[in-house]
Amino acid sequence: MTDVFVVLRQRLPSLSKAEQKIGELVLEHPAVVVESTITRLAERAETSPASVARFCRAVGFAGYKEFRMAITAAIGREEAARELFRVDDAEITATDSALDVVTKVAYEESRAIEETARGLDLDALDLVVGAIRSAPRIDVYGAGASGLTAQDLQLKLHRLGISCFCWADAHLALTSFALAEPTGVAIAISHSGQTLESHQMLALARERGVTTVAITNFPDSPLADVADHLLVTSARESRYRTGAMSSRLAQMAVVDFVVVRLLQGRMDHVGGLLRRTYDAVQTHRLDGQRQ
Q1: pLDDT tens sequence across 173-206
Q2: What is the C-alpha to C-alpha distance for residues 288 and 222, in angstroms, rounded to an integer?
Q3: Choices 2.102.10.10, 3.50.50.100, 1.20.1080.10, 3.40.50.10490: CATH for 122-279
Q4: What is the predicted pLDDT for the residue at 267?
Q5: What would the CATH number be for the domain defined by 1-82?
Q6: Could you tell me which of 115, 201, 225, 264 has the fewest CB atoms within 10 Å of its CB?
């Protein structure tokens, strides 16, 4: 079950301005929902009860009562998770100690992976894995920090004997995506789903009849609109945790989900490939020993 806070963060950019004000208030002060009637929440958000009702429906709830119950349950889960990490407030401040910073970052990053796993569309995961298995070629693109995830996916697929190309240069990537055959798979990675180049490439691949996959944090983003299959991450960021931190780990987790699913039932075939790639670098160890 996807956490209501995850849903709010993911859908916030696609909401109306009035609905965004409500969503931002709820994310900043979730307890206000537990303590307020629909009228009181509307007053706090400087909007109308009708706008609150529309907001609840926009984020997937039948009404305010159901939304309020979901928020109450989510607050309870958050408190339990913070207790596990012994974190009172996950928000990092300028006066936090080194221990505070380490603990809070560990809490947020573990939550990103946990929430991504909980909310992942498993049917979409298997469709992506099936497409990769049958494709003669995979093209992957990600800009900036998402490019690191793209490189990680390319490396892992390469070690499994799967022909995969990761593109760092946008012009070269567009050239490759334009030449892609319908039997291939094109994967674009973007936390926001708003990266121009990633959208251009996936749209171009789709025009070519290629199976398109998007890995993004926002299912209502432009990138998601041009994807046949969507793998959604659940990462929250703040002033001290930029998009290159929690989102990167969530993206890496999705890559690992895909790779391990690919490995299942194929270890007899790929085990030898993994051993050969492992052996190939052993002469470059300073101690000359294998791990």
Answers
A1: 888 888 888 999 999 999 999 999 999 999 999 9
A2: 50
A3: 3.40.50.10490
A4: 65
A5: 1.10.10.10
A6: 264
Structure tokens at 76: 């309870």
87 phi, psi to nearest 5 deg: -115, 120
Task: Give the Cα separation of 107 and 84 in Å (integer).
Answer: 9
Signed CA dihedral, 21, 22, 25, 28: sign only: negative
Structure tokens at 274: 């993994």
pLDDT at 252 over 60: yes
Question: Burial letters for 100-122: b for 16+ Cβ neighbours within 10 Å, e otherwise?
Answer: eeebbbebbbebbbebbeebbee
Helix segments in 194-266, DSSP class H:
196-207, 222-225, 246-263
> Kind of pairing, strands 211-216 and 229-232?
parallel
Q: Average pLDDT for residues 2-31, to the nearest whole number?
A: 89
